[in-house]
Amino acid sequence: MDRFELRRLDYSLTEDHKDLIAAYRQFFDTHCSIETVWAAEESGFDKSLWERLCAMGASSMALPESAGGDGATLVDLTLVAEEIGRAVAPVPWIEHVCAARLAARLGVADPEIVSGARILGLDVRAERPGGPRLIGSGAVAEEIIVADGDEVVLLGYDTRAPRVDNLGRLPMAWIDPATADHRSVLAAGEEALAEYARALDEWRILTAAALAGLVEQTMTVAAEFAKTRYTLGVPIGTLQAISHPLANMAIVVQGGRNLSRRAAWFLDNEPDERPELPGCAFVFMAAEAAQAATMAVHIQGGLGVSTEAAATAYLVRARGWPLVAGDPGQTAQAVGRIIAQRESAGDPAPAA
């Protein structure tokens, strides 16, 4: 891919990108069936799946070569995130790679973090009032990175916190920085907080990409059901009340996918040009994924609302995953402030 293609709104993928997608899709098709997802709901984490995923290089690919990784671009990572969302895989990959990339930028290059043998957590909330906070991977992460005032801090606990039941079926736990058994300041000051803010933007982009993959899969399941279910002698998929929502889901998938890839390209190449894009991608998919997954449940009728249906597994995650960062409305407000500040400053409109 030419480095300027996404800037010009050309979302075509190279053969290498297609091979990357195919490899991870095959991996999850083989190792992450819906039964695997259900089996991990109590803990929110499948250790065996995580180890297999890391052995495939999913953790190391995300880190720069200077830190011992493979130097994948953020666009590359969105492709992996889509496949994780498609499989609703019970692994904290997004949070780990965002935290690991942040640690690498701040000078921490631990081989165990690079390989995924040590899981890092990240406080991804836009607002940080202090005190205890819910961390998406808090029940399984060995260490957690948080922002504390003007410091970026690595916290360690001798005993892992108990998992808190949550809508997204994540290994979420309450973490209190004040009770950490080990605390080390990675960096402090404006530059450190800017790097932390970038990690949050990366999390928003990858979460948006994962939600796009989730919607595509739940759309596929609903479409297959609509093709085989008949009423009045015709497949229900021929009825506008079914076909139009399915078409809307396809639009959501393509729009969310393109927006997350575009946001990833700008954050990697021109981070100051379109700083609102990570938030835009996240807010769009947080809203649309929940609506699409709800419609997929409705299309499947009584089967869709049963706890044994795959549609339900996708619905709760579509609603729960974005809430790790708190209210998505806060991100929407931040996007509005960025755009308002740019417009009020009289800056020229960014290139399309």
TrEMBL record:
Q: Which residues form the Acyl-CoA dehydrogenase/oxidase N-terminal domain?
A: 14-96
Pfam families noted in UniProt:
Acyl-CoA_dh_1 (PF00441), Acyl-CoA_dh_N (PF02771)
Swiss-Prot/TrEMBL cofactor(s): FAD
Organism whose genome encodes this protein: Mycolicibacterium insubricum
- Which Gene Ontology molecular function entries are recorded, alphabetically? acyl-CoA dehydrogenase activity; flavin adenine dinucleotide binding
The record ties this protein, via PANTHER family, to: ACYL-COA DEHYDROGENASE (PTHR43884), ACYL-COA DEHYDROGENASE FADE28 (PTHR43884:SF20)
Q: Which UniProt keywords apply?
A: FAD, Flavoprotein, Oxidoreductase
Under which name does UniProt file this protein?
Acyl-CoA dehydrogenase
Keyword Repressor part of the UniProt annotation: no
Q: Which InterPro entries match?
A: AcylCo_DH-like_C (IPR036250), AcylCo_DH/oxidase_C (IPR009075), AcylCoA_DH/ox_N (IPR013786), AcylCoA_DH/ox_N_sf (IPR037069), AcylCoA_DH/oxidase_NM_dom_sf (IPR009100)
Give the Acyl-CoA dehydrogenase/oxidase C-terminal domain ranges.
198-326
Q: Which family does it belong to?
A: Belongs to the acyl-CoA dehydrogenase family.
The superkingdom listed in its UniProt entry is Bacteria
